[in-house]
């Protein structure tokens, strides 16, 4: 964990609140942040290019949804087998190696004659290692910033992901009017290469956090301990399922509005950026906890109205409002961090990310399958209703867990 000599303390030795400017003045965080930004932009460009290519070739809502979010299914396999490496391996070295793997996959996607089966195979390979990359990155983040800076740091990175998505979807839609999807893959590769250089040049290596050598057994034992605690299970349920079902709604925006999908996706990302800005920067921890349930309702509620086929401007406003609701992840992630021992932070955050990503894939697959027989607008409404039902049904368990964290001094 970063020392007080770097970040300073307030009167009585308590940590001062850490703002965005203070975070960005710290060289390692700035490097991790810039690298993450470039990676997010590259991933958005690549996903949009692949989704557009599959939609044009097949016209299938299911295959289009899977091409944009299908790598999520492999993430859970990585979480079940590799996640102990996030704490038991050298995190910077692990992160740089995974950047290289992603670059190789994007380079292969840029080959025009590659069969669709091979393209989906590459998605699964990248997805398998995705949770490990997140665990290594977030484990580094928890060491680079102090506890008081964790929520602002996650907020800033989430906002960046939203901003990169806005840029990526908008730019991807514009580029595909003048470039082929294969050329857009090439641009994504350039952004990813820059991200690799930045993280290698700015982030120093950390020592291994776990006492034992990482492996399959250690991964299973850590995951069993994580899922065996009721408080953590309640948090994970709310981080995974409602979000995943809403991502299923987003996965149908291409078949829902083929000529305007980039606008709708960009609006959702803009809403996500706004939500993270307000929640992470303007609200304190207590306020974030109070707003968590309302934000989860906002996450899904606006998608119900897309069944009415509103004009594009109204649809964009609805999708943007729903994007604000993704900020509910911040207070839930704070609670999860408060329940996690230092030596397990990489694995726990990697599992949280893997489950969230996997549920995104499940949501996309369910959405695509239902949309084969039900009109996309009504399918979106059905998934939104399911998300709201899960949020409402699990509210009591989350409130009980939040009270336990507060009583424990978290």
How would you summarize what this structure contains?
The protein has helices at residues 4-7, 20-25, 27-58, 61-69, 72-81, 85-88, 91-109, 116-144, 147-175, 181-202, 216-227, 230-251, 253-256, 261-282, 285-300, 312-324, 329-338, 345-370, 376-393, 395-407. It is mainly α and 410 residues long.
The number of helical segments is 20
**Uncertain regions spanning at least 5 consecutive residues:** 1-6, 8-15
Shape designation: globular
The mean pLDDT is 79
Number of strands: 0
Span of the ends, CA to CA: 17 Å
Order of helices and strands: HHHHHHHHHHHHHHHHHHHH
| Helix percentage range | over 70%
Counting helices, strands and paired strands, the structural category is mainly alpha
Radius of gyration: 20 Å
Strand content: under 5%
Largest sheet: none
Structure description:
It is a single chain. This protein has 410 residues and is mostly helical. It is 78% helix and 0% strand. The protein is built from 20 helices and no strands. It has helices at residues 4-7, 20-25, 27-58, 61-69, 72-81, 85-88, 91-109, 116-144, 147-175, 181-202, 216-227, 230-251, 253-256, 261-282, 285-300, 312-324, 329-338, 345-370, 376-393, 395-407. The longest helix has 32 residues, at 27-58. The chain is globular. The chain starts with a helix and ends with a helix. Mean pLDDT is 79; it is low at 1-6 and 8-15.
Keywords:
globular; 410 residues; single chain; 20 helices; 0% strand; mainly alpha
